[in-house]
Design goal:
Helix content of chain B: over 70%
Radius of gyration of chain A: 22 Å
Low-confidence stretches of chain B: none
Order of helices and strands of chain A: HHEEHHH
Oligomer: heterodimer
Structural class of chain A: mainly alpha
Mean pLDDT of chain A: 96
Low-confidence stretches of chain A: none
Distance between the termini of chain A: 51 Å
Amino acid sequence: MSEILTKSRARNVFYGGSIFFVVVFVALTVQSHYYITNKSTAGMELTDEVVLGKHVWERHSCINCHTLHGEGAYFAPELGNVMTRWGAMDDPELAYEILDGWMKAQPSGIEGRRQMPYFEITDEEMRGLAEFLRWADQTDTQNWPPNDAG
Amino acid sequence: MKYQSQKVAYAYFLVAMGLFAIQVMGGLLAGWVYISPNTLSVLVPFNVIRMIHTNALIVWLLLGFFGAAYYLVPEESEREIFSVKLAYLQLIILVVGTLGAVGSYLIGIHGGREFLEQPLWVKLGILVAAVIFLVNISLTVLAGKKTAITNILLMGLWLLSLLWIFAFINPDNLSLDKMYWWFVVHLWVEATWELVMAAILGFLMLKLTGVDREVIEKWLYVIVATALFSGILGTGHHFFWIGTPSYWQWVGSIFSTFEVVPFFAMMSFAFIMVWKGRRNHPNKAALLWSLGASTVAFFGAGVWGFLHTLHGVNYYTHGTQITAAHGHLSFYGAYVALNLAMFTYAMPVLRNRAPYNQVLNMVSFWLMTGGMAFMTFTLTFAGTIQTHMQRIVGDYYMDVQDQLGLFYIMRFGSGVAVVLGALLFIYSMLVVRREVVKPGPIAQPGE
């Protein structure tokens, strides 16, 4: 092996191969980018309200307790399909009302129960957050999660 | 210490160990909240504790890498670092940024992308520090001798710094956001960091075993080739369920399966070099950490990664405690243990004394490794039950969590062992001034 695979050959295989895989990866990423914008998330318009909701989601770092499409912390329930779970997927008003009621009841203060903090969120932001969660829910995630439990 | 400027590494290692202590104590606190959820729930909620736990980890590992680079590049390039002042300036920027980030997390100011929660000014500070580092270390290498170790180390550090750009790109479209987020997260820990890891491991093997450089460097190129060939398209295993096309299920499954290879190769590399090596290096603890790092990395990143990487499996396990189990053991084996190996090797040299305190150090290895292994097992069992109850049966999340209490108690216990191990490690590095256990007489060869 030592005659065929010299150090310089190993180095060249490393450089050449890596460039090849980077090119393939970039090409697939570009295709995926278009697939996401035109297909998998195209079921609902990406409105200013949804964007506002995403900023609310980020400002309070919900991802460090919850998961969203399975990514995040594992301390609190999956939220990528929460609107389906609540039966509010097709009803923006109901989505807002349930979310608003839930968020304002926190923290529960029940001893031995995981606590969700209380967040200062305006009505407009709460509507945005509800729309953001509906928008996330309509994404084509290849049928993940397996059931409504998330 | 052959070169005066290597001393810079000492400051980096000290700060890294300080953050290491903060990281594990943050982890212990988070583990406690699982058992007693009302703890600090209003003052410092779980999401903030977790942020500190993960961010402290990432920063101290990076500081360890930077320190390792400042230590090994002068020896490899056979010259002093281009500018010692720049190296200290870089450290100061990173320390101010880290303290600023932790402070702002505690008062509720943070971003909302996992691991990238740092306020914008901190992100920019990290960018500036990275540029300073790259300039400083590249000028040192360019002016001196070039070796495969410095080549690979620099390539890893350049690429990971470039990928940091994606920390600033946050599309409004959630699925795009997630896709580009992985450009930092996956392409760091499952590609570019592996280059850094291989380079540091190669350096340690060179010093500890005395095997010929030519042999080590050829191994290194083979290892990093398998790392990038599998790891780049292996990113696909994160693109199963986030709105990306379905072909990623096959691309991701196949290539991420091969991500086991570089870790197996690094483990084999370490053991074979020690076997072939004729040098009887006095720093046994550094050798233990080097072998331990490559072994636990193989199990944590390799075996536990493969456990849930095939899309047919991942469909059910995605985002459960299985992921948490894998995350803990892989980070510990691949990057924590490797950094501690480097500290163990370099600190006595930097402090200009014999490697004392080895027994305590080795005890800390077993405490931490045992603790992490136990934590991984308990989380894997918890995750298996969670997968079944939640994903197959369809029980609700909190109902399932209520059934997992025993595992979280055991996880907390293993966390205590890890924290004790970490504190013992730091103690053995910094405080002990003589050998605690006397080594026996040199053994005569057997009959």
